Amino acid sequence: MIRHIVFFTARDPKHLPEIRAGLETLGTIPHSTHFEVGENLHTDTLTGTEVDFVVYVEFETEADLAAYKAHPTYEEAIRRVRPLREMRVAADVVAR
């Protein structure tokens, strides 16, 4: 199983609803076995409160992840979210 985890920070807090809406469109893409968008509770005082959203997606195979990233909805989500976000950090890891 592959875990795709992405962290986002908004340029401006007023854009949080638009960013969430854009990220949630990713859940309509087939190929994943689990999809969620979570808003950071900002309770961790050790690292700051810079992360606003986390996208967490699970895939059976790397081919499924590649198909997800090649889907037109993925490109549309990028088009909607990129101008509103400050930071994006992504990791794809194999679950053991």
Structure write-up:
With 96 residues, the chain is α+β, with helices and mostly antiparallel strands. Helix content is 29%, strand content 35%. The protein has 3 helices and 4 strands, in the order βαββααβ. The protein has helices spanning 16-24, 62-70, 72-81; strands spanning 2-10, 32-39, 53-59, 85-94. It has a 4-stranded antiparallel beta sheet with strand order 2-3-1-4, with helices on one face. Helix 1 (16-24) packs antiparallel against helix 3. The model has no long low-confidence stretch (mean pLDDT 95).
Query: How are the strands ordered across the major sheet?
Result: 2-3-1-4
Number of helices: 3
Ends distance:
8 Å
Query: Structural class, please?
Result: alpha+beta
Given as residue ranges, the uncertain stretches (5+ residues, pLDDT < 50) are: none
| N-to-C SSE string, H for helix and E for strand | EHEEHHE
Strand fraction equals 35-45%
User: Radius of gyration, Cα only, in angstroms?
Assistant: 13 Å
Report the count of strand segments: 4
The helix content is 25-40%
Mass-distribution shape: globular
* Mean pLDDT over all positions: 95
Major sheet description? 4 strands, antiparallel
